[in-house]
Amino acid sequence: MTVSINGIAHIQLTVNDPARCIPFWEQLCHFMEMTTLLRNDETVYCIGGRTGILVRGAPKDTEALPFNQDTPGLHHFCFRARSAEDVGAISDFVEHQLGAKMIHRAQEDPQFAPGYFSVLFEDPDGLRVEANYIPGKGHFGDQGRLGGSGSGPAVHYGEDGLSDG
C-alpha cells in the first residue's frame, strides 16, 4: 500500500533574531496572500495557499548558534508559485521591500527541470528560501526526465542540474 500526500501542511523555522525575522516573515507571507493566525514577540504563524509557515525565536541558551546550510538539517525550502511573473514579483518584493540578501534574482534555470524559473534569497538569519515556477508537468511532462520520452531518474545532482554521470 502507498499513500499520496497532499503537500506540506506547515514548516516551522527557529531563528536567532526574532526582532528582525518575525516582521520579515510576516511581510513575506502577507505578500504571498497568507494570513497571520498567531503573532507575538517570539512567534509568527501564517497560513494560506495550503501552506503554513511558523517562525519562532530560538531558546535563549541556543540563540548564538548561526544558521549553516551545510550542517545537518534544513538546506533551504521552496515555495511553488503559480507563474513566472509571480516569481518575478516575489523577487522584486524581497529585494526592494524586505532588503533580503539575494542569492540569485528571478531567472530561468532549465538545468533543474524544463522551464524551471526561480528566485533564491536569505532571511535576516541567513535561512535560504526559494520560490519557483515550473510550467506544465515538469519532470513528469513529455520533456521531463520522468515523462514518456525522459531518461529516468538521475545519478548525479550538481550546479549543472541533474545528470547521468
Describe the structure.
- This protein has 165 residues and is an alpha+beta fold.
- It has 2 domains: 1-57, 2,3-Dihydroxybiphenyl 1,2-Dioxygenase, domain 1, CATH 3.10.180.10; 76-147, 2,3-Dihydroxybiphenyl 1,2-Dioxygenase, domain 1 (Roll).
- Helix content is 16%, strand content 33%.
- It is built from 2 helices and 10 strands, in the order βαββββαβββββ.
- The strands form 3 sheets. It has a 4-stranded mixed beta sheet with strand order 1-4-3-2, covered by helices on one side. A 4-stranded mixed beta sheet has the order 5-8-7-6. A two-stranded antiparallel sheet has the order 9-10.
- The longest helix has 14 residues, at 18-31.
- The two termini are 33 Å apart.
- The mean pLDDT is 90.
Write the layout of secondary structure elements.
Elements: E1 11-15, H1 18-31, E2 35-39, E3 43-48, E4 51-57, E5 76-80, H2 84-96, E6 101-108, E7 117-122, E8 128-133, E9 156-158, E10 161-163
Parallel strand pairs: 1-4, 5-8
Antiparallel strand pairs: 2-3, 3-4, 6-7, 7-8, 9-10
Characteristic terms for this protein:
2 helices; alpha+beta; 2,3-Dihydroxybiphenyl 1,2-Dioxygenase, domain 1; 165 residues; 4-stranded mixed beta sheet; 2 domains; single chain
Q: Unreliable runs, pLDDT <50, ≥5 residues?
A: none
Q: CATH top level of the largest domain?
A: Alpha Beta
Beta-strand segment tally: 10
Tally of alpha and pi helices: 2
Number of domains: 2
- Globally, the shape reads globular
Q: Quote the beta fraction.
A: 25-35%
